[in-house]
């Protein structure tokens, strides 16, 4: 039986394989640095380097949260924005994958 960690690693590698424009790796690098952020905060950080819409960022974060399972979502009240937190147990795995194989791309998006 394959462990959950191995499944997440496989999904994460596949997620980054199709990253043609660097947005995905950039979002993951941001989460490694700041540990938690809202969609608007991520969009502000990405828009300085990429021509990316808020909906694109929201879509990618939603995918990372639901399919990859490396983020937790928290909302104080119905009026506040959703805050996404990087799960502590996957920081080392994410760091290995993001900085491996395509290290030059990770440096340009960090």
Automatic annotation (TrEMBL):
<protein>
    <recommendedName>
        <fullName>DUF2551 domain-containing protein</fullName>
    </recommendedName>
</protein>
<dbReference type="Pfam" id="PF10826">
    <property type="entry name" value="DUF2551"/>
</dbReference>
<dbReference type="InterPro" id="IPR020501">
    <property type="entry name" value="Uncharacterised_AF1218"/>
</dbReference>
């Amino acid at each position: 039986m394959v462990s959950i960690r191995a499944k997440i690693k496989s999904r994460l590698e596949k997620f980054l394989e199709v990253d043609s424009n660097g947005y995905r790796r950039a979002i993951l690098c941001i989460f490694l640095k700041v540990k938690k952020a809202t969609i608007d905060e991520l969009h502000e950080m990405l828009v300085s380097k990429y021509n990316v819409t808020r909906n694109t960022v929201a879509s990618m974060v939603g995918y990372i949260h639901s399919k990859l399972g490396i983020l937790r979502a928290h909302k104080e009240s119905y009026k506040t924005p959703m805050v996404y937190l990087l799960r502590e147990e996957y920081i080392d795995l994410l760091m290995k994958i993001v900085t491996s194989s395509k290290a030059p791309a990770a440096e340009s998006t960090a």
